[in-house]
Amino acid sequence: MNGSMAQCDLLIKLLLFAVVSSILGFSTIALADEETETRQQLQQISTEVKKLRILLGQFKTRRSELQNTLQKSEVDIGAIQRRVRSIQQQLHKEQAELSSLQKQRKQLKADKQKQQKYIKQQIIAAYQVGQQKKIKVLLNQEQPEKISRVLAYYDYFNQARSDQLNAYADIISTLDTIEPKILTKTHNLSRAKEVLSDEYEKLLSRKDQREKSLVKINSAILNNDQRLKKMNKDRAELEQLLAAVEQTIANINIPTDYKPFGSLKGQLPWPVSGKPSNRFGNRRNNTAMRWQGLAISASEGSRVEAIHYGRIVFADWLRGSGLLVIIDHGDGYMSLYAHNQSLLKEPGDWVHPGDIISTVGNSGGQQSANLYFEIRHNGKPTDPSRWCKRA
């Protein structure tokens, strides 16, 4: 698209050159013979210039629309990722509860079989002994001292049989309670899987939409000058954002159990596991612009962790940075995490070292997944590799 814009600019310049040439030529020929023809040429050129300017305006409007589409797609992807993450957690919970209930049911069925066996044995024994022997004991006058002992045995036997029957009844009752729970959990799992499948379909659709928008935008940015202008504009917006943040936030107080950020040079953890694809301060894409942070290659969806205690002061989409998180660590120190897939914290949230704040993505128009990471002091970027521990 920008190639067409460049061609339009060239055509405008050529047409304007033609206008000048026509005017200069006009002075060297007879006015009476050429006046009408020259006026017609000027009118035609003026009309063509207007058309080209309108076309250029349409190109710019279309590019802005594509940028808005990309923003919406990436924000939607982040929201869907959060829903997918929540559903997956619920799915694991339901599966664990279902497994526990199934294990309990298995044990109860085993206990039920044991109780059935015990009750069967007691019924057979009771049948074999019968009540006649008890009557004979009561009528036996030869050994009256054994009567009370034998009667006690009979009572124990009957009580044991009653206890077994009660235990059996309890097992049956518990099984009757567990079975509906298992059915409910199974239904919940099935429904959660359906919802998860639907969300993944939405996610794939949004990603496809994002890729199409990205291809269109990238096809409209062809040369280094245009990329440099875009990067300068993106950087200017980021600088304005940081300046606004510094002016509006109150300096945070670090808890006594955390060391001040400035005293931890070379001791801070990296926000994500991965290898930087650039060096701080080097030129970006063969332009005059320098890297002010590190682009850390990592798998899409990897967890991004806060490097130190602080407060989230920004968590939203920003052109060029995509889904961006900024943490204020106090004493003028800030850390920035860009190109995320999803944001897991809100502005105003307090975070501790190791808290998960986002997931790695390629928002902001990146071709591949990576985390762009900056550390700043009083608004000036510093080399993150000097602050974080050596790998």
TrEMBL record:
Q: What is this protein called?
A: M23ase beta-sheet core domain-containing protein
User: What species is this protein from?
Assistant: marine gamma proteobacterium HTCC2143
Check the record and name the InterPro entries matching this protein. Answer: Cell_wall_metabolism_enzyme, Dup_hybrid_motif, M23ase_b-sheet_dom
Q: Indicate the transmembrane segments per the record.
A: none
Instruction: Please indicate if the UniProt record lists Coiled coil as a keyword.
Output: yes
Q: Which GO terms describe its molecular function?
A: metalloendopeptidase activity
Q: Which residues form a coiled coil?
A: 63-121, 221-251
Residues in domain M23ase beta-sheet core?
291-384
Q: Which UniProt keywords apply?
A: Coiled coil
